[in-house]
Design brief:
three-stranded antiparallel beta sheet; alpha+beta; single chain; five-stranded antiparallel beta sheet; 10 strands; about 25% strand; about 190 residues
């Protein structure tokens, strides 16, 4: 399984002003915005860390999931959550020949808890693979659950204040993310 991010988060959608307020950086001076590129980099790092810890895509962007087998019958469990759109679904033979799968034959059930593509998965030929292109994540910063957005701001502020990289993830951030971490029951991720 290979998951590839095929678009990126636009800088304009990042909550730089909210992080600046969290850090109590001064405003109304000629240097306003001087720290924006630094704050942007820490926000990106914090978002990446929260996404890695929870499996939840915070801000909307495109991904391609390349897989060599489907594990279940009558459904495909996608490794991203939430997913708002399946863009394309193709099955490739070892030779590279592609068969486009009609996504109208599937229904998408996705929320912050998981994503399932309901329908009869196609067979993947030996040596072949399937590629599913999706749009995943929340539409914008204001759509995120407040505890996740708060965790990102706390973590980005912690990165800013602890530039030496010492210490682990702050306890408050771990506590905010705990309810969102994937749970394993009987060896399956739920």
């Amino acid at each position: 399984m290979i998951l590839t991010e095929t678009s990126t988060i636009d800088d304009a959608t990042l909550p730089v002003d909210a992080l600046s307020a969290q850090l109590r950086l001064g405003t109304g001076f000629a240097e306003d915005g001087l720290q924006d590129s630094v704050l942007t980099s820490y926000l990106r790092a914090a978002i990446g860390s929260v996404e890695a810890q929870t499996g939840i895509i915070l801000l909307s962007r495109d991904f391609t999931w390349d897989v060599t087998e489907f594990r279940e019958d009558m459904q495909i469990t996608l490794p991203l959550r939430p997913v708002s759109k399946i863009s394309t679904f193709g099955v490739f033979e070892a030779s590279g020949a592609e068969t486009i799968i009609d996504i109208d034959g599937f229904s998408l059930r996705s929320d912050i808890n998981g994503t399932i593509l309901m329908g009869d998965p196609p067979a993947i030929p030996k040596g072949g693979h399937a590629e599913i292109e999706v749009l995943a994540g929340f539409a914008d910063w204001t759509s995120l659950p407040s505890d996740l957005s708060h965790a990102v701001l706390l973590l980005a502020a912690w990165f800013y204040e602890n530039r030496t990289g010492t210490g682990g993830m702050p306890t408050a951030v771990r506590a905010l993310l705990a309810p969102y971490r994937p749970r394993r029951l009987g060896g399956a991720v739920t």
